[in-house]
Amino acid sequence: MMTMHSHTPVMVREVLQLLRPQPGEVFVDATVGLGGHSVEIAPRLVPGGWLIGIDRDPSALQIAARRLEQFSGAIRVTLVHADFRELPHVLRERGLEGVNGILYDLGVSSMQLDNAERGFSFRFDAPLDMRMDSSQEGITAADIVNRWSEGDLRRLIQEYGEEPAAARIARAIVQNRPVFSTQQLAALVAKAAGRRRGHIHPATRTFQALRIAVNRELDGLQEAIEQAVRCLLPGGRIVVLTYHSLEARAVKQAFQRLSGKCLCPASIPECRCGAERLIRLLTPHALKPDAEEVALNPRSRSAQCRAAERVAD
Q: N or C: which end of the chain has fewer CB within 10 A?
């Protein structure tokens, strides 16, 4: 049974097969969260390896530290409070010119979803916060809902939530301000969006859009993946887990461009997208969790896994 701080990492078998961590190697878990994948990678680095975990949620880092303490002495474990986009800086600060493997598990963690006070889920009535790094001042979901214009809200919900009823939802939000709690917003959205087929709550896409905006989840994602690839040693591997189509598309395009595929329109006579062959694709098509994993961990159902290997310069 899942508790507030329990976490079931997604597609662990596939991640380990693709990353192939070996004794003495240096690996980065760029979104270490509660350490679910890291506790599986760490024993494969024994002896003499180095595991660097990065996360912008200080609460998650505390839990990851406790879970990884068991490997103290067998490998070096370093946990860093930072954004995954700061990966090159984190490595430079530690004198590392390259690493053997990098993992990104994008999206919100189970702890954040299950902690009512964080305001990520409409399963609990809580303030509309949604900040992954609550230790920093920053815009909250309540700020967006109560301050943005109807037009900006519509564009946000349409673009980041891919919500067909974005216009009706944006209008309903503006007409019912102030909106400060998760369940207040969920009820308002459900009424505006109407009934839907399937089991997805009508407010799911709107909450996703707000979360993406609050945490700038898509800002510089492609650039971050490209920088991470350049941090790999020849033969080093990168694995990225995504959970919605927008981040999946960004990662797919970054991998395609870095594998040498030009993404420019056919009408342009010369390549301007910066395609260069730095990687070999290990997953020409995204891998997805099997039915057994989805049954055991329903939150894995939307996961997509992509991987690549750094080729020699």
A: N
